[in-house]
Amino acid sequence: MTELKNKILSSKNIIITTHKSPDGDAIGSSLGLYHFLKKFDLNVTIIVPDSFPSFLNWMEGTSEIVIHEKNEAFSTRLIESSDLAFSLDYNGLSRIGEMGKILGNSKSYKILIDHHQNPESFADFSFVDTNCSSTSQLIYEFIEKLGESSKISKNIGECLYCGIMTDTGSFKYPSTTDRTHEIAASFIKLGIDVSKIHNEVYDTNSEDRLRLIGFALTEKMKVFHELGVAHIVLSQEELKRFNFKKGDTEGLVNYPLSINGIKFSALITEKENEISLSFRSKDHVYVNEFASKHFNGGGHIYAAGGRETTTLTETVEKLEKLLKIK
Ligand code: 5GP
Ligand code: MN
Fold it and tell me: How far is the CA of 83 from the centre of ligand 2 (A)?
């Protein structure tokens, strides 16, 4: 760690990258690390493949984040000229889309900090714990291992708390441990306002979003009680009807899992260029294997995602066959 610390402190151009469709943990961990590195007057930029939901905008530093899709030339130059690159909350270069190739070809020293299953070996240094609640928790552990936890300030705490809170379903998933709470408590001691963070993330629904959730649960959720599975399918047309914005379907896939006897839930949404699949499960049904084997994806054992380039109908048919619905 001493060697690594010296390497970090002597870097001229540092970038922090995180996965496509960044979530609370992706943005929270990136900003937490960003604010930490800034304390050493380092030159740091966060680059994300595409935009993130507006309910994360309250975190300090979001306006400095470079979105690759919106500023390709600038982002490419930043990646190519970086001498140190952090990869946060993703386990393989394909998870950052087109940026993956550019980062893979760059000469930068690569540090991976992640908690997803089956990490690929693209980094020079990996700080990975697949049992950890979140990458944000790992950022805390990483800073502590560097011997610098006294540098963790309130704004770092806010960002990391947001990542831990969103990735643990507000401290309820089995990945939540005494350590997770200890770390959260240390942020509260720094003065973070947990109610404010909760409100910013969860209580900022638009009318459109609430109606979309209502529509999805009433009209689109299909429950197959005898198989213990459920799914929700949303087409582009349906999403457009509710003026879909990024983040509007966040959390939707969890609802069917709360039905007694349902152990597998899928949300299938028709995006502009692909079909996106989101899986949640419990009780020893492992969706990361399912997602990587059948839908070009992966993730965690009880929360994973994937994608298809065929049509919505074909994707639903494929899923239903695999689940023995058809
Ligand atoms: P979500 O359903 O929320 O999009 O994703 C659930 C979890 O699976 C998240 O931790 C996400 O990062 C991960 N995930 C989603 N898609 C993929 C994928 O294609 N590959 C891998 N390795 N992980 C994914
Ligand atoms: Mn995560």
Answer: 25
Q: Which of 293, 296, 268 is nearest to 280 (CA)?
A: 268
Q: Are residues 168 and 250 in the same domain?
A: no
- Choose the final residue of a domain: 179, 202, 225: 202
238-250 pLDDT, tens digit per residue, is 999 999 999 999 9
CATH of the domain at 267: 3.10.310.30
Query: If you take atom 12 of ligand 1, which residue's CA is the nearest one?
Result: 299
Question: Which neighbouring-strand residues pair with 230?
Answer: 223, 265
Distance CA 120, CA 26 (A): 18
Task: Give the burial class of 326: count Cβ atoms within 10 A of its Cβ; 0-12 exposed, 13-18 middle, 19 or more buried.
Answer: exposed
**Predicted model pTM:** 0.95
Who surrounds ion ligand 2 at CB < 5 A?
Answer: 25, 89, 134-135, 167
Report how far ligand 2's centroid is from the alpha carbon of 13 (Å): 25
C-alpha closest to that of 48 among 12, 72, 77, 81: 72
**Segments in the chain below pLDDT 50:** none
Final residue in a domain of this structure, among 180, 202, 224? 202
CA pair distance 52, 34, nearest whole angstrom: 17
Q: Is the CB of 303 under 6 A from ligand 1?
A: yes
Q: Which long-range contacts (CB under 8 A, 24 or more apart) does 103-107 make?
A: 103/17, 103/79, 105/80, 106/79, 106/80, 106/82, 107/83
Note the pLDDT tens digit of each residue in 189-207.
999 999 999 999 999 999 9
| The ligand 1 atom nearest the CA atom of 304 | 8
The length of the chain is 326
